[in-house]
Amino acid sequence: MENIQEETRMKFTKKQLQSMINLELEKEHGLNDLFTMMVNGLMSSERKLFLSKKEDPSNKGNGYRKATRSGIGTKLSLSIPRDRLGVFKPLVLGLLNEQEGQVKHLCFELYGKGLTTRQIEEVIGNIYGSSYSKSSISRITTDFGALVDAWLHRSLDSYYPIVYIDALHIKVRRDRVATEAFYVLLGLKEDLTREVLSIVNIPQESASGWQEVLDGIKERGVSNVGLFVFDDLTALDTTIGKVFTSSMQQKCILHFQRNLNKHIRATDRKEFAKALSGVCNPDHPSYTADQAKSRLAEVLHQWDKRSPKLKATLQRTD
Length: 318
Fold this sequence. Notes:
Layout lengths: L1 H9 L3 H12 L4 H23 L8 E10 L4 E9 L7 H22 L4 H12 L5 H19 L6 E15 L3 E12 L5 E8 L5 H13 L4 E7 L5 H8 L4 E4 L1 H9 L7 H9 L11 H15 L5 H8 L2
Parallel strand pairs: 3-6, 6-7
Antiparallel strand pairs: 1-2, 3-4, 4-5
């Protein structure tokens, strides 16, 4: 029978085959049906070639298993060939799986940019047709959300020598697109590696907001922090003193310098930055706090008349 079928197939000319394909394409899901036949045929040929190598003579074909994969506008109904030893893996199936992985990655990216499930569905629909339903996209984004939630609530070390707190300003879509601050808590571990402890969004800085953030890392296992380094963030210093009572605090030198520049005329800022560089010298091992205070007093004396507000600002941040 196989020989008869083989001879029958060999009698078709290219024009006849093209005519048959054209007729199939005129059907509603003709393209997808042809693609399904092609994929099934490729996998069957792959298995035949795989078994012909006779790496293990006892291994033979073992029927097919049904599966679905995303196709062109709809799902592919596949018959995946099996072998007795379970070692055969069709290459073409791997390519289809890779496509689904790329779609998931695309959904994650769009979800992270603030698009809704409906908007993501429209984008995927324009690219892949109706292969991915609203429920499929929703499931993918839900899976992504679960991964993010698990990361945000994972257990942390009990002790971090230093925790840095700084802000990233990102455009976020809610009722409209606006820039919001997301605060990153970066912990320096005892082995000198770094770990992002948390990323939080606080619409308006406040003692209650920082209380929730610090209580959150405490509940996840952090019991002691040697030093907190942060910018002049509203109510953060007093809240740290309540939650981590034994921790030291240090304002970020870089932000400190930038904030001082606000009180200097634009034409004088280059000169002021040069003078201030002699005060802020944290990388020199022999540099002491008393030396820094002495040099700072000299700078204040030099710039007191040119920038009267500078001294008052420094006294507030002392």
